[in-house]
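Work Package 3 (structural annotation) set out to generate three-dimensional models for the target panel prioritized at the project kickoff. During this period the team completed the workflow that converts sequence records into discrete structure tokens, so that structures can be stored uniformly alongside our sequence database. As a representative example, we reproduce one entry of 341 residues exactly as it appears in the project archive.
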Amino acid sequence: MSLPISKKFLPMEAQPATELPAGPEWHYEPKWDGFRCLAFRDDGKVELVSKSQKPLTRYFPELVAELSSLKAKNFVLDGEIVIPVDGKLSFDNLLMRIHPAESRIRKLSAETPCVFIVFDLLVDEYGKPLIGLPLHERRRKLEAFAKKYFKKEGLIRLSPMTRDLSVARKWFHMGVGLDGIVAKREDLPYQSGERTGMQKIKKQRTADCVVGGFRYLEKKKLVGSLLLGLYNDEGLLDHVGFTSSIRNEDRQQLTKRLEKMIKPPGFTGKAPGGLSRWSTKHSMEWQPLEPKLVAEVQFDHFTGGRFRHGTKFLRWRPEKDPRQCTMEQVQREDRSALDLL
């Protein structure tokens, strides 16, 4: 096997679904909240490649060292890179690794080492491609590979799997570190770059937020996004993100409503950030509002005191007292996904 073969192994992906499929042809695995990664070893050389074929090798030197130390000299593993911090998985610490300075990466790799959670074996230790085999055979070979080569309490772990739908449902409701559940057809080969044979069921989380301000559209004086807030433990309203999923037909009426409520300061705790290299003065200007409106939004992740991505507006909650919109809504169950490993 030679490392350029990496270009032939685009990761198999999953089709979004709303519920777990049932049947003897399916098995279920946790959907980890990390960086998807293919790990290649060709004798003495190790290469880490992201889902989008970007090189990850330099950002995780501790994983490269661990993969290099395995007695197996040839393999391709498919898995997820995560970073445990205080017994939980931290996506924020993972993002910090994508840093241009090697000294910074080395420091972080020592302070918060990553874990590589493996869920597929694409090439075995003899250099034999396995992608043509059905999943149940690849899984059996992966389990044997892990038992033989993975170090106890090392940085490389075998991802759990179950054929029991009730167990998968319990995993779905676990705490920090899981994005949901992936269901995989056991009778199919590895379909590189395709979305057939796998389904991902992501958690849908919602929160009621105070609208503490808004921004206009770039070229029209119509509302472009709502600035969202949650009350912290000190009773101050922190800015936690935004939603821009406003229907065009609603913008004019909503703008008139919001403009009547403009009143500083909007946020009494953390306020929206200032200019950055990606923003213009106009795009960062915002109007503060009286803390009276409550919006229910759907979100994927909440880390570092913010919604990681933009949220989806669901509905207004006129019956909700703004003071009830606290950080408790976005706190995850204390049980860590690491408990599964």
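DSSP finds seven helices and 19 strands in the chain.
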